[in-house]
Amino acid sequence: GAVVSQHPSWVICKSGTSVKIECRSLDFQATTMFWYRQFPKQSLMLMATSNEGSKATYEQGVEKDKFLINHASLTLSTLTVTSAHPEDSSFYICSARGVAEELFFGEGSRLTVL
Amino acid sequence: EDKVVQSPLSLVVHEGDTVTLNCSYEVTNFRSLLWYKQEKKAPTFLFMLTSSGIEKKSGRLSSILDKKELFSILNITATQTGDSAVYLCAVQPNQGGKLIFGQGTELSVKP
Fold first, then answer.
1. How confident is the prediction along chain B (111 residues), in pLDDT tens digits per residue?
2. What is the chain B residue with the closest CA to A94?
3. Residue B13 carries which DSSP code?
4. Inter-chain residue contact A43 with B42, CB threshold 8 Å
């Protein structure tokens, strides 16, 4: 079946550095990918919708200059957390929409900012 | 504002018990409601419901949607310790594919 791969699965970085997370659809083309964030003991919150070849659409309250999203190809979207701070520590999950509009989730990336 | 509310937020049962998890929603342009199971990592898909009154079943799990009353339930019969997880309900409001998640119900099944 279709698989969405995220990398890295976990990352630890120092405050002030930038971290890039990749989301790949391995055996299907995904014109749309979604980025979610999940804090401990909380549910998934949509951050942004990533469309191939165009700018991402951000949800209210999400800083687009801080969370840079690039969807340069039909199989890859990246989320870059710029100048990360401890409050950005979270579980970031992407999902991709297949041609039949089914949704597949990546394995998630756990970010810890020291 | 679109929202999804799950209840209870947490639940502790013993193996063999039957549980019912609730999900109510308010959303414009409803398209589908989905149930996911989340253990350590990303959610795994359980069911997608689009029509009222049609039960979806997979082993000991079943789910049904009521579009008039705007809610869904997820039933788990003969629970096992492996059912311990957070169960997430999400609503897809339109063709775009984004999901609005509820807070989740944390289920703990004791041996």
1. 889 999 999 999 999 999 999 999 999 889 999 999 998 788 888 999 999 999 999 999 999 999 999 999 999 999 999 999 999 999 998 767 788 999 999 999 999
2. B42
3. E
4. no
Identify whether the C-beta of residue A2 lies closer than 8 Å to the C-beta of residue A102.
Answer: yes
CA atoms of A31 and B96, how far apart (whole Å): 11
Q: Which among A105, A109, A110 is the top mutation candidate for probing chain B, defined by the most B β-carbons within 10 Å of its own β-carbon?
A: A105
Under a CB-based contact definition with an 8 Å cutoff, are residues A74 and A99 in contact?
no
Flag if B98 and A93 touch (Cβ within 8 Å): no
Beta-strand relationship, B3-7 and B19-26:
antiparallel
Whether B41 and A101 lie within 8 Å, measured CB to CB: no
Written as one letter, the residue type at B43 is P
